[in-house]
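cron nightly-structures :: item 1 of 1
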Amino acid sequence: MTKNFANRISIIEAEALELLDKAHSETELEEWRIAVLGRRGQITTVLRGISDLDPDSRRTAGAAANQLKIRLQAAFEDSKGRINSDETVASTGTSDRIDVTLPGRKVSSGSLHPTTQIIREISNAFNTMGFQVLDGPEVELDAYNFQKLNIPAHHPARDMWNSLWIDRASESGEYPLLLRTHTSPMQIRVMEKNDPPIRVIVPGKAYRYEATDATHEWQFCQIEGLAIDRDITFADLKGTLEEFARIIFGAKRKARFRCDFFPFVEPGAEMSIDCFKCDGQGCRVCGNSGWIEIMGAGMVHPKVLEGVGYDPQLYSGFAFGMGAERIAMLRHGIDDIRHFYTNDIRFLEQFK
């Protein structure tokens, strides 16, 4: 590359950058681009002049001219960004530049879902009483969901659970399958694999084919409890569940047990607590009765014990089940179970 050509490139670059610094609007910037980088601009003129050089100098001169074009193009983009930023500030009074002297913004953090929170709280309550927390399959065999729980095929008691059946056999070839309607099948699975004493709770999802309204969902979370040992009585059931009610709803809570029917317990009971809003005097929350039902329970049926190989003459036990969302609704005054599943951030933020 000749010395004259190199000097020419240096002069063009210096003059172009000087003119670029004087451009203060998009119009002036576009005029500069046409004059310097356009099809008939200075860079194009320089590139055409390379053909006049001797063959040994053309390669070096061409590389130098291309590097000049790259540098001027980069300078043009920088100036374009600067002018756009200045115009934004002038029109809106704001700037995209970071002011490092400003205080930092608080980072929004997530939190556990209210259903998860109440499940953990309930689990911790029973942990303190020696219960172990287990999990189980959500796709269940008819044998575990019904038959081994003293609900044989075609028994009218099955009408208590609106089942969602799966038209496919299990891996073992057993049939039919369904989405479990309650977490009670884990009673059988636990007893089949373990000898007494047993103290477990099983939180998990359950599914039922029913209409959705303020108090019903087709998918919900249930918490099952089971205790098996020698000489367990209904008094043990009452004492355990009364202690749970005091931990969750307050130390002053009273409990009431009334007869109810569940095929896998005998006797069965419905457990209620005195209303924590009116202290049993009667209000809208308790339907003016003074009591709020929170779960079903009972003594494990002897046929269920026999079915898993336990001797009902030696062992007895109790079982209970509650809806996690129902407990949360009572605790927090929530009037519609559908709030738990709509993912409304305004609802969820209340439980941070």
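cron nightly-structures :: done
The mean pLDDT is 85.
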